[in-house]
Specification:
It is built from five helices and no strands. With 131 residues, the protein is an all-alpha fold. The protein starts with 18 loop residues before the first helix and ends with a helix.
Length: 131
Protein backbone atom coordinates (compact mmCIF):
# COMPACT_ATOMS: atom_id res chain seq x y z
CA UNK A 1 0.00 0.00 0.00
CA UNK A 2 1.25 3.44 -0.89
CA UNK A 3 1.16 6.00 2.09
CA UNK A 4 1.66 9.22 0.20
CA UNK A 5 -2.00 9.52 -0.83
CA UNK A 6 -4.85 9.90 1.66
CA UNK A 7 -8.35 8.70 1.06
CA UNK A 8 -10.64 11.57 -0.07
CA UNK A 9 -12.87 11.38 3.07
CA UNK A 10 -10.10 12.46 5.52
CA UNK A 11 -9.30 16.18 5.91
CA UNK A 12 -5.89 17.30 4.93
CA UNK A 13 -3.59 18.27 7.81
CA UNK A 14 -1.80 21.07 6.06
CA UNK A 15 -4.72 23.25 5.13
CA UNK A 16 -3.59 26.89 4.73
CA UNK A 17 -5.04 29.42 7.21
CA UNK A 18 -6.62 32.52 5.77
CA UNK A 19 -4.34 35.59 6.24
CA UNK A 20 -6.96 37.65 8.12
CA UNK A 21 -7.75 34.79 10.48
CA UNK A 22 -4.05 34.13 11.01
CA UNK A 23 -3.40 37.77 11.98
CA UNK A 24 -6.39 37.71 14.34
CA UNK A 25 -5.15 34.52 16.02
CA UNK A 26 -1.63 35.95 16.34
CA UNK A 27 -2.99 39.15 17.92
CA UNK A 28 -5.15 37.24 20.41
CA UNK A 29 -2.19 35.16 21.53
CA UNK A 30 0.03 38.24 21.98
CA UNK A 31 -2.42 40.20 24.18
CA UNK A 32 -2.14 39.49 27.90
CA UNK A 33 -5.42 39.19 29.79
CA UNK A 34 -4.75 42.35 31.84
CA UNK A 35 -4.56 44.50 28.73
CA UNK A 36 -8.37 44.55 28.55
CA UNK A 37 -8.35 46.83 31.62
CA UNK A 38 -5.94 49.29 30.04
CA UNK A 39 -7.53 52.55 29.08
CA UNK A 40 -10.02 52.42 31.92
CA UNK A 41 -9.69 55.21 34.48
CA UNK A 42 -8.96 52.84 37.38
CA UNK A 43 -5.66 54.50 38.18
CA UNK A 44 -7.20 57.96 38.64
CA UNK A 45 -10.14 56.53 40.58
CA UNK A 46 -8.06 54.35 42.91
CA UNK A 47 -5.45 57.02 43.64
CA UNK A 48 -8.16 59.61 44.33
CA UNK A 49 -10.11 57.20 46.53
CA UNK A 50 -7.06 56.19 48.57
CA UNK A 51 -5.82 59.76 48.97
CA UNK A 52 -9.19 61.14 50.10
CA UNK A 53 -9.98 58.09 52.24
CA UNK A 54 -6.68 58.26 54.10
CA UNK A 55 -6.82 62.07 54.42
CA UNK A 56 -10.33 61.96 55.86
CA UNK A 57 -9.61 59.24 58.42
CA UNK A 58 -9.57 60.79 61.86
CA UNK A 59 -9.83 64.39 60.72
CA UNK A 60 -12.24 66.95 62.09
CA UNK A 61 -14.94 66.04 59.57
CA UNK A 62 -14.99 62.44 60.71
CA UNK A 63 -14.93 63.42 64.37
CA UNK A 64 -17.80 65.88 63.84
CA UNK A 65 -19.77 63.17 62.02
CA UNK A 66 -19.06 60.77 64.85
CA UNK A 67 -20.32 63.26 67.44
CA UNK A 68 -23.44 64.12 65.43
CA UNK A 69 -24.20 60.44 65.00
CA UNK A 70 -23.78 59.84 68.72
CA UNK A 71 -26.13 62.71 69.59
CA UNK A 72 -28.69 62.00 66.89
CA UNK A 73 -31.46 59.43 67.03
CA UNK A 74 -31.16 58.81 63.30
CA UNK A 75 -27.61 57.89 62.30
CA UNK A 76 -28.76 57.10 58.76
CA UNK A 77 -29.70 60.74 58.20
CA UNK A 78 -26.37 61.85 59.67
CA UNK A 79 -24.60 59.53 57.24
CA UNK A 80 -26.68 60.83 54.32
CA UNK A 81 -25.96 64.45 55.27
CA UNK A 82 -22.24 63.84 55.73
CA UNK A 83 -22.00 61.90 52.45
CA UNK A 84 -23.90 64.62 50.56
CA UNK A 85 -21.62 67.30 52.03
CA UNK A 86 -18.48 65.36 51.04
CA UNK A 87 -19.86 64.81 47.54
CA UNK A 88 -20.70 68.53 47.24
CA UNK A 89 -17.25 69.64 48.38
CA UNK A 90 -15.62 67.11 46.06
CA UNK A 91 -17.72 68.37 43.16
CA UNK A 92 -16.66 71.95 43.92
CA UNK A 93 -13.02 70.85 44.02
CA UNK A 94 -13.30 69.03 40.70
CA UNK A 95 -15.06 71.95 38.98
CA UNK A 96 -12.63 74.52 40.37
CA UNK A 97 -9.64 72.35 39.45
CA UNK A 98 -10.98 71.87 35.93
CA UNK A 99 -11.49 75.62 35.53
CA UNK A 100 -8.01 76.41 36.87
CA UNK A 101 -6.43 73.78 34.61
CA UNK A 102 -7.70 75.64 31.56
CA UNK A 103 -5.89 78.84 32.64
CA UNK A 104 -2.71 77.63 34.38
CA UNK A 105 -0.10 74.95 33.76
CA UNK A 106 0.08 71.89 36.05
CA UNK A 107 3.43 73.08 37.40
CA UNK A 108 1.94 76.46 38.37
CA UNK A 109 -0.99 74.71 40.08
CA UNK A 110 1.42 72.42 41.95
CA UNK A 111 3.43 75.41 43.14
CA UNK A 112 0.30 77.32 44.19
CA UNK A 113 -1.04 74.30 46.09
CA UNK A 114 2.30 73.88 47.83
CA UNK A 115 2.38 77.55 48.84
CA UNK A 116 -1.21 77.33 50.15
CA UNK A 117 -0.40 74.24 52.21
CA UNK A 118 2.74 75.90 53.60
CA UNK A 119 0.66 78.94 54.63
CA UNK A 120 -1.91 76.71 56.36
CA UNK A 121 0.90 74.83 58.11
CA UNK A 122 2.52 78.09 59.23
CA UNK A 123 -0.81 79.37 60.59
CA UNK A 124 -1.40 76.11 62.48
CA UNK A 125 2.12 76.23 63.94
CA UNK A 126 1.54 79.87 64.93
CA UNK A 127 -1.67 78.90 66.75
CA UNK A 128 0.09 76.07 68.59
CA UNK A 129 3.01 78.25 69.68
CA UNK A 130 0.77 81.11 70.90
CA UNK A 131 -1.66 78.94 72.85
Amino acid sequence: MKLSTLPPSLPTLERPIEPAKSAQMRQSYQKPAASKLEGLPWKAFSSTFLTIFLAEMGDKTQIATLLMSAESQSPGLVFAGAAAALIATSLLGVLLGRALATKFSPKTLDTAAGVCLLCVSAMLCWDVVHF
